[in-house]
Amino acid sequence: MSDQALVVFTPSGRRGRFPLGTPLLKAARSLGVDVDSVCGGRGICGRCQILVSEGEFAKHGIVSRADHVTAWSEVEERYKQKRGMKDGRRLSCQTCLGGDVVIDVPPDSQVHKQVVRKRAEVRDIELDPAIRLHYVEVAEPDMHNPTGDLERLKAALEQQWGLVDLETDLRIIQTLQRALRDGDWKVTVAIHRGQVMTAVWPGFVDHAYGLAVDVGSTTIAAHLCDLASGEVIASSGIMNPQIRFGEDLMSRVSYVMMNPGGDAEMTAAVREAINSLTTEVSAEGDIDREMILNATFVGNPIMHHLLLGIDPTELGGAPFALAANSGITVWAAELDLAFHPDARVYVLPCIAGHVGADTAGVMLSEAPHLAEEMTLVVDVGTNAEIVLGNKDKLLACSSPTGPAFEGAQISCGQRAAPGAIERVRIDPETLEPRFKVIGCDLWSDEEGFDEATKTTGVTGICGSGIIEAVAEMYLAGIVSEDGVIDGGLAERCPRIVPEDRTWTFVLYEGRQRIAVTQNDVRQIQLAKAALYAGVKLLLDRAGVEQIDRIRLAGAFGSHIDPMYAMVLGLIPDCDLDAVGSAGNAAGTGAAIALLDTSTRAEIEATVRDIEKIETAVEPKFQEYFVDAMAIPNKSDPFTRLFSAVPRPAGGEAAAQRDAGRSRRRRRRTS
Ligand code: FES
């Protein structure tokens, strides 16, 4: 009988012959099979579980049986009793080869496992976190062979894990002796990106955590992730306390310009908020915040600078110079963040002075740079960040939309909060509106609406509400293509009332009157025209006329109904079913960079290659802006939209103009 046996690992299909008695974990390692381990084969961590497949495997030329490996061991029994293990599973570090076998490595035992994500995503995440844990037994000091504790730890890491040339933080040396003695010379070491010892704990530790944070100008959101499984174990959000220094980004930059030391105040405020958020998610996830060893951050350029303690004044005016636009890795302690004292923080790269690390996060999540389709990604905020392209070329710009989409500068505008109108429908025959408010599932014309909204009331219109209101007013013929509220309809519609020398459309008359004024319509026109003109510049530069896919990102973007955004001409013409929300794509991008470190180099390379367009200096911006003031647009026909949505009666002129334009085009080309 041969003293060697054949082992085939599935699903990788890797195979090799090994001497009988070889532990399966060792065989897997030598074949490069992806099997996890923290304890280094001591039967403690349970990460190395496998299944012995039974039966005749003609494909591999093997008859595999459970008794072709060594019998169930005491170590496995002890582990199963203590931590639990599914029937049929074995610890590969404790199971040795006794004959030919096929070994299945289940997904949860693989280091580079796929992370399961909630919604159908553009890309898969393969787990490859920056932090790996390694349990080691370290030689005790010997008077006859004097070496430092650190050197013996390094020798153990090299011998037991093959880790060489490790760098060490001073804090590791400061805490090492205690940890080694408390752990009876057995410690767990956290290694950052295979290079730097980041933490040492006495005994066996098998979980480390990471935090993915999206620092928005209004809210800060964080996801706490288990770095071993990729699972999000807690998520939470908090208002950005910098709001007290200025509602929007430019007012915060002005605050810095006018108040020496204002940047330091805002830096302290945002860091404090992140620390509170960390306390909250750690409590929710039931972990010690010191177990957070890695964090990733995204944010627009001004949030990015303030988080890092950089004065954002340069971003307040041309040429909008960033202090740094590459990805940045720093110690959490340098940012006063209360994670593990030696935790590392990675801040995603910024793209340009107005296009930040939040857009880099959106790109990681939506992956236009990996797609064939011509994709437009728009993060709608007070400053819209726009990316257009596909795997061949990407362009980016930002456009100053102002705060109208957030409900500011709108007469009855308010933030998205209970009581705010968020959905609007207008009957084109009767011109009678109905609406929904945040916090209530009923439409305003449904029975029980008044009762259901008794506590919240109907308090104003939020961003998505004003978009729908103006778009529905246009579809119902109340607002013309030029954005003028038609006072001629006042006779048949008592909701159209004069105000100064213009007209106002009253949506609701209750404890307070909620109405859309002529000036509100203008503000929305100005905001959407700025955004659309930015998109047009990118389309021009890319030499593209048709967009295959549109993704709306950001808190606001995920609440707008794509159809209404298109009716208004906020986004270009596209098949409606190819337009969708990217959800909180920036935060998802931060989580991707946290869980799969290979994406950090990917996004940095992508960002380096993006062509940046500065809208402020582009001569055609003004022309596009003027055209885009019309609803949906003076020069672009929006044929795909109007093949799905009936054009309003007042829009006949536009339709005729479009027909005329295409006739002229045909004549020119014939
Ligand atoms: S490697 Fe830890 S239990 Fe097998």
What does this structure look like?
The chain contains 18 helices and 31 strands. It is α/β, with parallel strands linked by helices and 670 residues long. It has a six-stranded mixed sheet, sandwiched between helices. Strands 30-29-20-21-22-31 form a six-stranded mixed sheet, with helices on both faces. Mean pLDDT is 91; it is low at 661-670. FE2/S2 (inorganic) cluster is lined by residues 25, 37, 39, 41, 43-48, 91, 93.
Largest β sheet strand count, sense and barrel closure: 6 strands, mixed
**Residues in β-strands, percent:** 15-25%
Overall pLDDT metric: 91
Q: Low-confidence segments, ≥5 residues, pLDDT <50?
A: 661-670
Biggest sheet: strands side by side, in what order?
16-15-14-17-19-18
State the end-to-end CA separation. 85 Å
- Gyration radius (Cα, Å) is 30 Å
Helical amount: 25-40%
Compute the number of structural domains. Answer: 5
What structural category do the secondary elements indicate? alpha/beta
Please, how many helices? Answer: 18
The coarse overall form would be elongated
Bound molecules: FE2/S2 (inorganic) cluster
Q: How many beta-strand elements?
A: 31
Keywords:
670 residues; alpha/beta; Ubiquitin-like (UB roll); six-stranded mixed sheet; 23% strand; elongated; disordered C terminus; binds FE2/S2 (inorganic) cluster
